[in-house]
Amino acid sequence: MPRGTLEVILVSAKNLPNADFLKKMDPYVVLTYRTQEHKSSVAEGSDPIWNESFLFTVSDNVSELKLRFMDKDDFSDDDYLGETNIFLEPVFYEKSIGETVYNVVKEEKYFGEMEAILVDEENHSGSKELIAKYA
């Protein structure tokens, strides 16, 4: 059963590993909630800035948002840089979660980080909203 709308504002990341040896990396993020998937634009460098917003329909039985950090390659498969899983249940019950740092991990090792502010509030349309700031 739908619970509302989840909004994720992807701002930036930092300290992502450079997967390109001869040029600057071109990172992007694939955001996944259940079967819904959104892809950010391709940014530049290991400290990319996106400032993009994504909407998801939230259900009662799924409480995890997955973010996969990728590096765009022109002549081969894109490189996987790492991922972050954000558990959403606390924000649904607590109404908000203050600034929290999430690590970008790959094979259980640190590969950068992101900072998130999570807010769950009833807006005028009655939907739930989550705002995430990544730094």
TrEMBL record:
SUPFAM superfamilies: C2 domain (Calcium/lipid-binding domain, CaLB) (SSF49562)
Keywords: Calcium, Metal-binding
Sections of the chain in a coiled coil: none
Domain of life: Eukaryota
GO molecular function terms listed in the Swiss-Prot or TrEMBL record: metal ion binding
Protein name: C2 domain-containing protein
The organism of origin for this protein: Lupinus angustifolius (Narrow-leaved blue lupine)
SMART domains to which the protein is assigned, alphabetical: C2
Gene3D superfamilies on file: C2 domain
Pfam families: C2
InterPro entries named among the record's database cross-references: C2_dom (IPR000008), C2_domain_sf (IPR035892)
Record flagged with keyword Calcium: yes
UniProt domain C2: residue ranges: 1-101
